[in-house]
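User: quick one
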Amino acid sequence: MAITTKGQIGLTGNTAIAYAMKQINPDVCPAYPITPSTGIIEDFAGFVADGEVDTEMITVESEHSAMSACIGAEAAGARVMTATSSQGLALMWEMLYIASGMRLPIVLTNVNRALSAPINIHCDHSDSMGARDAGWVQLYSETVQEAYDNLIQAIRIAEHTDVLLPTMVCLDGFITSHAIENISLISDADVKGFIGAYKPAHALLDVEHPITYGAMSLPDNYIEFKHEQSRAMARSKAVVSAIGAEFGKKFGRSYGLFDAYRLEDADSVIVILNSAAGTTKVAVDELRAQGKKVGMLRPRLFRPFPFEELAKALSGAKAIAVLDRVDSMNGFGGPLFNEIRSALYETDSRPKVMSRIYGLGGRDYKVKDALGVYDELGKVVSTGKVETLQKYITL
Amino acid sequence: MSVPAEKKEKISVPFDYNKYLRPGKLPHIWCPGCGHGIVLKAMLRAIDKLGIDKDNVCVVSGIGCSSRTPGYVDFNTLHTLHGRALSFATGIKLARPDMKVIVVTGDGDALAIGGNHFIHTCRRNIDITALVFTNAIYGMTGGQYSPTTPLESIATTSRYGNIEPPFDTCEMAKAAGATFVARGTAYHTLELEKTIYEALMHKGTSVVDIIDACPTYFGRMNKYKSATHMMEAMEKDGTVSVKQVDKLPPEKVAGKMLRGVLHKIDRPEYCEQYALLVQEKAQAKSK
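Assistant: Done. Structure below.
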């Protein structure tokens, strides 16, 4: 099976996402520019202008309008994509819930960035983590290659009849969005073949079969709608796995629910999202070379959260540090920490878990920072005690 | 050789901008050739003319190139969210009606994402001065077309020319209810200073649309040779003073924007009306 038809090509995260959008050729793309995801829309606007896609591009006056237009277009029966970041996603908030409540398989790229105040434009997971309960499937990407591959898979995941939920692909602002990486592209024909044509089950423009979206639903049936939505979210986990495997079979790059690195016999484990996993792997290799039993786990699917699979993968560890590039401001660590800790409750081994908040607002996370965390974990392994349950690092 | 007495009087002391600038915050981030610095200076001179304590001035902004202004100036400043500056400013003015509240905003900030707040601020006629730095593009995010980008202009999101008709900021402000509406340019610097001063002196919502070229994005994409060429073409030749317009032949006015004070009326100001109502109800209750 050919891995690529074109050989590797150097693209930034933004350009790769725009290129995947070109290959997907959505029917509608409403967008509002926001740094650092602007490159995506700029490049895509170029494809639209040059007639390389059939997309109707609408440059609206705010992200609230962008997501509103996405919802309208998707309900009408179109395949819809957009991209945003930070405050842009925050302004979409109200509409995110409407998109998921209406079960509209919109696909959005979110370039992870900090939220105001104070104003900051750099990498941070506050934006998408704030939207974690909005009913969107969330995929996180370590590299440009993965972001590109995730976006193509996101179309299939969102539109799968077992799912029918909007899907968000996240990549790190600047670190991934603006870094050039050699990646393998899939041919246009293969992308087209993989995603297939969009056949909406219920479309407003299908005038032969009139329907309504978002109608008033009082205590007599609102909870049933939410129950169905919840079941769809739970079902999407298997769909993400199946599509990740099918993608691997066709294009040579398989994707599971998470990425485990030298985890098999590891006592000390860091759990971390997105690009910082790459830095952590360097630390893992360094420590493994010294004979230390360390490993790393990077969740790829965050919504729905793969509780059982992650608990199983981590049950052999003795001490785990969950690193969040966002603080839940709940007085008890970051969102990933809370989910991982909750997942481990059912395990017999109950490894020690601690929360470390790092890299907010684009603060560098370096190999030495990861080494520091492994050092702390080593102490927990030897003493069996967590001295500091939660704290900020990279301060 | 003696200097004539009247000439001696005209010698002016250079304006001390440092009085109003925050030490250590310069240089600013604006590109070479951008007019925002000229507008900032005109604004500071106009504020200086008011003769009020700088702690009694509040400068509020949203997001964008123009919205960086509050970072450089030594007043009370609030840097907020994209499009929402006027709403934050409304809150400040209601809490402190004695304070001079100035909003520094761009065309994308004020008229696209913040368009709703813009028209409702004008409608209320609350005593806020909005300075709209109109460069007809989203400069900070890389040159996307905005609600004031002229038809057929090139932007990163309109590679073959813009097909969306632009807003006339002044007409919109007037129609929405602003009681002082004016236009200036970075090119006509001294005139701009006077216009901003008049706007600041006006009681009620005052809007000054300031034509201010963006050579980095708008200029390069639309084939302006230089920042000065752009300033001359858009600001000098692209506008005509409202005082001269009646004297000029129609061909010299066609397609040009009017400069100067375009609309000025008296209408009850919101904070005053609010205070009156509270007073009236309180008196009625105490009787």
